[in-house]
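Subgroup meeting minutes
Present: P.N., E.W., G.H.
Scribe: E.W.

1. P.N. recapped why we're keeping a running log of single-chain structure predictions: easier to compare across weeks, and new members can see raw inputs and outputs side by side.
2. G.H. added today's entry (177 aa).
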Amino acid sequence: MRFDLNTCPKQPWKNGGGTTQELAVGYSGDALLWRLSMAQILADGPYLVFPGLRRIQTIVEGAGLHLSGPDQMIAVRPLQPVAFDGAVSFYAALRDGPCQALNLMFDPTRVQADMTVLFGPQCWSGIDETLLYCARGSVRCGAETLAQEAGIHCTGPVDIDVSSGAVAVLATLKPVR
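Output recorded in log:
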């Protein structure tokens, strides 16, 4: 399944500090397994909590932010994925203006997930369920070519070719056994 940031509707945050666009989602019956979304973070403020979920976040535009929680601080820098518990109440402080964050939220009791950034030129192959987002340039995934701000969800073996100068964010998903 392909997705494109330019065609996904924006949902405003309750606190007015940004918007979210859902790119892809996986369910088992009515239970959420995982959700990939893009957040436009426009102002400092509290992060929403998601009890029972883990989060992996990668800044794809802007200088990043600092997350302050009750017992921890996390520096979220551009193109460096960070993982944290979705149940923790964080306050986000932008580093130098607005930013965009690609977020993967998942149920850790049902899904193992990882996120990595691929810098072109680079090739990658895998057999796990994957979510691929092209942050810059163009990326080939099998027979599909993705332009900037487009992505794809693949459920079988996949070969990825990141063109020279391009940047892609790859998330892999495996069922917990």
